[in-house]
Design brief:
Largest sheet: 7 strands, parallel
CATH class: Alpha Beta
Number of domains: 1
Order of helices and strands: EHEHEHEHEHEHHHE
CATH superfamily: NAD(P)-binding Rossmann-like Domain
Helix content: 40-55%
Structural class: alpha/beta
Bound molecules: NADP nicotinamide-adenine-dinucleotide phosphate
Number of helices: 8
CATH topology: Rossmann fold
Radius of gyration: 17 Å
CATH architecture: 3-Layer(aba) Sandwich
Number of strands: 7
Strand order of the largest sheet: 3-2-1-4-5-6-7
Shape: globular
Distance between the termini: 43 Å
Length: 258
């Protein structure tokens, strides 16, 4: 299939001002899709994404939205539909984490993580699906979950709860929305080189044991994740729904808590 396999499609990538979301936005643009770039706190990251997309000649807009707020989830989707006339692809990528012993997790910490990682995904997807229903269109939902939708991560209970929630949300929606020709899948990255992992990557005592657990012996790149998103968004994945695909160098099959 040619590099323009997504020509004529419009994609919203949440949290595309950084890391994996930025990589996916660039890849889908390279494949020919128009892109809604979303940020919350870093407009300069969103502008960088737009600059990197420019050479591919697709349309792009930048929309600020705090996805912990339902009204922002809805206005983000509306902005995309207003700009491009429709949205075909939603990549729910925006996510946060906060480490803490379980007994010390505050309601504020819990809400910080769950409101972006689960509530935001829920209501952004709802707004996106309503847009598809309005136009009687098929669509693609791709959630960037984590190996921690399935694998333990002690001291990150809220993160695990959010990603485990996305696993069941994906399975449920794949069944409910399948008859409307809307596919729903998760990508579960392992350890990917992005700002979210900066402190871990700079701490040899944490990095070395992690690398020893990864059968492929390296951290992943955003391009590794974006390649799968590109496939799941494409016509080639028309019969793929209801599953999680791991991009983790084999980590989930070989994890030992230190
Ligand atoms: P990152 O570099 O920290 O980027 C996070 C993105 O989410 C940023 O664009 C950020 O936007 C956005 N975001 C945060 N809070 C938001 C909010 N309230 N509303 C809207 N956007 C918000 O992280 P990353 O490593 O690329 O992670 C992306 C996704 O992959 C997350 O869901 C994460 O859980 C998942 N993941 C990452 C790894 C990994 O190893 N990196 C592994 C497994 C899963 P602003 O900066 O503009 O606020």
């Amino acid at each position: 299939m040619s590099e323009s396999k997504l020509a004529g499609k419009a994609a919203l990538v949440t949290g595309s001002s950084s890391g994996i979301g930025q990589g996916i936005a660039i890849r889908l643009a390279k494949d020919g899709a128009d892109i809604v770039i979303n940020y919350s706190g870093h407009p300069e990251g969103a502008q960088q994404t737009q600059e990197m997309i420019k050479p591919f000649g697709v349309r792009s807009i930048i929309v600020k939205a705090d996805l912990s707020k339902v009204a922002d989830c809805q206005s983000l989707v509306k902005a995309g539909i207003d700009a491009f006339g429709k949205l075909d692809i939603l990549v729910n990528n925006a996510g946060v984490e906060k480490g803490s012993d379980f007994v010390d997790v505050t309601e504020e910490d819990y809400d910080f993580v769950l409101n972006v990682n689960l509530k935001g995904v829920f209501f952004t997807t709802q707004a996106f699906v309503k847009g598809l229903f309005d136009k009687n269109m098929p669509g693609r939902v791709i959630n960037i979950s984590s190996v921690h939708e399935d694998m333990v991560f002690p001291h990150f209970a809220s993160y695990c709860a959010s990603k485990g929630g996305i696993r069941m949300l994906m399975r449920d929606l794949a069944v409910e929305l399948g008859p409307k020709n809307i596919t729903v899948n998760n990508i579960a990255p392992g350890a990917i080189i992005t700002p979210i992992n900066k402190s871990m990557m700079e701490d040899k005592a944490k990095l070395d044991p992690l690398l020893a657990n990864i059968p492929l012996g390296r951290l992943g790149t955003v391009e590794d994740v974006a390649a799968l998103a590109s496939f799941l968004a494409s016509d080639e994945a028309a019969y793929v729904t209801g599953s999680t695909y791991f991009v983790d160098g084999g980590l989930i099959r070989n994890y030992h808590e230190q």
